[in-house]
Amino acid sequence: MMNVPALLLLLLALSLLVVSAAPAYAHFDHLTHYNSRGGGVGQYYVYEALEPDYAAPGEPTAIMFSVQDYDGRDTYNIETMVEIYTSSGERIKAFPWTKQDVGDFQVFYTFPHVGSYQIVLSIADGPVNTNAIDLPRSTLGSTAGCNCERLIFNVAVSQGFGSIYNSTLGGAVFSSLAIFGAVLGLTYWSKKKSGKFASAPGDTMRYIVTLAAIAGGLVHFAVYSGHASLRLEYSIFLIVAGGMQVTYGILYTLLTLTGSTTGRARPHEHYRKTVAVNLFGLIGTAVLLGLYAYSVTLPPPLSPTGQPEDVDLAGILAKAVEVFTLIGIVYLMRLEKRRLQTFLKEHA
């Protein structure tokens, strides 16, 4: 059957979620696309990120760290000092040596100007002056006179870059839908003009539902990378889920065009194919909605934080589209059944 490959992909993604034991790459709630770095120092591997990702001058910003060992395990009771330098080498902020109960911690700072900054994280590997601040250094990576390891992270503070990135991402999603919709429209009018297209009740709804399914898939493609820092498998699952949604939309569109072309489809065979494709879309969409409800209520499988997922705007939009798609698929299944019954009555 035509939906077997997609079902195999779903089973593969679910198996990765259930049985994989790969470590998390960081403990942030999402993978940042900007101002996010990672590096090893001594016995530690450190991840750094800003929240918001696209820090702007005059905006309170969280500087987040996740200090782990090289196997991705948590670290405990480490002493750290955080410094912020301008690109000219001037230290503009320092947070004193502090004992961190766990290696995941954050400090807050408001960057004053647009430009590049260096964030220096010092991790003690011997006695240090707790609650004190070391003197600034001209060589940022130098550990002279300090029982510590130092790691430098470069970040950029800009005005409006986040809006540009989000607009570009949104444009990529909606332009893909617009192109697909335009192709459908041109195909429809071309076949109708040539007399090869037999319109049927519900054609408009068919195209709306398929576009909604594809839109849900594109949203998953847009957000998959943001989950990689929690579990790599989460991103794999989102890619597979998006691929399944797009596959359903394209398959049903092809069936609709074939079934509406004069002399191209046998009614019984066409109906069986639509049932198979619609069941594939219905079950897949229901599974995605169920998994989302579970993940925002209870900690999802393999969660490194042990906390439910945050409810965000992208998630709400994606699930709203999927609820509409689910209802639409049920409507299409009833529509296809009525269409077959009408044909049988007319040719009895």
Radius of gyration, rounded?
27 Å
The beta-strand count equals 8
Total number of distinct structural domains: 2
User: Number of helical segments?
Assistant: 6
Question: Main sheet?
Answer: 4 strands, antiparallel
Strand content: 15-25%
Which H/E pattern describes the elements? HEEEEEEEEHHHHH
Instruction: Kindly name the structural category.
Output: alpha+beta
How far apart, in Å, are the first and last alpha carbons? 30 Å
The multimeric state of the shown protein is single chain
Which residue ranges are poorly predicted, with pLDDT under 50 across at least 5 consecutive positions? 10-25
Mean pLDDT: 81
Strand order of the largest sheet: 1-2-3-6
Percentage of helical residues?
40-55%
Shape: elongated
Please, could you describe this protein's structure?
It is a single chain. This protein is α+β, with helices and mostly antiparallel strands and 348 residues long. The protein folds into two domains: 4-22 and 161-346, no CATH class; 55-157, Immunoglobulin-like (Sandwich), CATH 2.60.40.10. Helix content is 47%, strand content 21%. It has six helices and eight strands, in the order αββββββββααααα. The protein has helices at residues 4-19, 161-194, 203-223, 232-259, 267-297, 313-346; strands spanning 37-41, 44-51, 60-68, 76-86, 91-102, 104-110, 115-124, 148-157. The strands form two sheets. A four-stranded antiparallel β-sheet has the order 1-2-3-6, with no helix packed on it. Strands 5-4-7-8 form a four-stranded antiparallel β-sheet, with no helix packed on it. A hairpin with a 4-residue loop joins β4 (76-86) and β5. α1 (4-19) runs antiparallel to α4, α2 (161-194) packs antiparallel against α3 and α5 (267-297) runs antiparallel to α6 (313-346). The longest helix has 34 residues, at 161-194. The radius of gyration is 27 Å and the shape is elongated. Mean pLDDT is 81; it is low at 10-25.
